[in-house]
Amino acid sequence: MPAQIGYLLPTRESVMEGRPQAEPLLKLAERAEQLNYESVWVGDSLLARPRHEPITLLAGVAGRTKRVKLGTAVLLPALRNPVLLAHQVATLDQVSAGRVILGVGIASDVPNIRAEFRAAGVPFEKRVGTLLEGMRLCKALWSGKPVDWDGRWHVEKGVLGPEPHQPGGPPIWAGGSVPAALERAGKYFDGWFPNGPESNIWGAHWREVQAATRGAGRKVEDVMPAVYLTLAVDDNVTTATNRMDNFLQTYYGRRPDVLKKTQACYAGPAGGAAQWLNGYIEQGARYLVLRFAGEHEKQLEIFARLREQLSR
Fold first, then answer.
1. Residue 18: which region, alpha, beta or left (left: phi > 0; alpha: psi -120 to 50)?
2. Cis peptide before 197, with omega less than 30 degrees from 0?
3. What is the pLDDT of residue 196?
């Protein structure tokens, strides 16, 4: 089965560049659907990397599209009350007739993200346990049955309505490449969704996820192997590299060479991009979510044409 291809909307870039209007983003989502991308994705941040709120924006995308899946890449559930989040996601899944994929993560340990957690009143050091319990509570509420919960949150015979369009709720994919994240993905989630590293290391990590999946008594085929990749395509390698480095520096406020050690990035001609993507597919990736370093309309067209060069 060919790998599926998703596209990340440039919500962060739009805000950074002083263009916060949603209409251009909705048009990009429509264009991605016209070009037969399988999904459209939105990132998440409150204050650390200001951008459009993902659930709200994806509801707008749902109204402008018919087929593409709608994903978060990735949502930070620990910043949200899970009862409210369960309600929002269930409603989005109904609005989109069952097209939601919930990518989730715990966030990087950097100063501005720690400040973001403080602003939201959430202990950063407890974000893993908060994520796991919050997702369990969401799933309980998505069952449509009365829920009693006594943990970080307290629910007494709570019944959520509407239930999600997808029975039991949308699939939940977990990010992360450290050993604990690989184990969590294999034990608890419906997909593994890191933003790197390079394909051979990604493949070794995927085998660790598979081992954790089997160890939990689950079927390997029930966990989607996905990857989040950043690309800048140009026939001139220097131009593409400069665009990538400027993008990473502006987006994260950190040195590009440091970021490239943990995030998978490609800068160069289209033929090389196809070969690079095939490296992940050959290691077992079944879903590639692409983030473009600028020139979104052009890059969307390029990768729509490149699909024929990807491994099957």
1. left
2. yes
3. 85
Query: Which has the closest alpha carbon to 277: 237, 238, 312?
Result: 312
Model confidence, pTM: 0.97
Is residue 79's pLDDT more than 80? yes
DSSP string, 177-203: -SHHHHHHHHHH-SEE------HHHHH
Give pLDDT, residue 99: 99
Residue 230 has pLDDT above 90, yes or no: yes
Give the bridge partners for 267, in sequence order.
232
Query: Which CATH number characterizes residue 51's domain?
Result: 3.20.20.30
**Residue 140 belongs to domain spanning:** 4-309
Number of separate domains in the chain: 1
pLDDT, residue 49, reads 95
Q: Helix, strand, coil: what percent of the chain each, to 5?
A: 50, 20, 35
Q: Are 297 and 28 in contact (CB under 8 A)?
A: yes
- What's the distance, CA 16 to chain centroid? 20
CA–centroid distance for 124 within its chain: 20
Distances (CA, A) of 223 to 82, 130, 160, 188: 23, 22, 27, 9
The tokens for 39 are: 């999904």
Give the angle subtended at the CA of 208 by the CAs of 134 and 184, to the nearest 5°: 10
How far apart, in whole angstroms, are the C-alpha atoms of residue 122 and residue 261?
29
pLDDT given for residue 1 in this prediction: 72
Span 98-121, average pLDDT:
96
Query: CA-CA distances (angstroms) from residue 226 to 170, 175, 304?
Result: 16, 9, 19
Local confidence band at 26 (pLDDT 50, 70, 90 cut-offs): very high
Sign of the CA dihedral running 171, 194, 76, 46: negative
Question: What pLDDT is recorded for position 146?
Answer: 98
Q: Which helix (H) or strand (E) holds 57?
A: helix 54-64
Q: Residue 284 burial (CB < 10 Å; 0-12/13-18/19+)?
A: middle
